[in-house]
Amino acid sequence: MNMRTYSNKLTVLLATLIILNLWVAVFGDGMKNTDEITARQNRIEIKDFAFNPQTLTVKSGEKVTWINRDEEPHTVVSVDKQFNKSTALDTDQTFTITAGAPGTYSYFCSVHPKMTGTIVVEK
Ligand SMILES: [Cu+2]
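That is the input. Now the predicted structure with copper (II) ion docked in place:
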């Protein structure tokens, strides 16, 4: 192997390392963004007298936000008092909780008790 071949191989190796580093940097950021998007998507819309999605699975410590898209006021009340109840939410008003201990959180609207939903909190 002459010096020139050796130098070329070194260049290829270095270039590969740089590309790998860039890829990891981009991929790493991608992972972080995905987590942020997941966190932002813990959102339950209240529309047409229903919670949507009706069942939402989140991880303990994540936030969950309800937004009222109806013209009627609605509330969010935990059946087993696993979180503090909301005030009556006006149109486009939001209510946020932080998911606590793992388990199944059943909730309802105290104004319209037939409106029910579930949050499954995982570890
Ligand atoms: Cu309601």
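The helical segments are 3-40.
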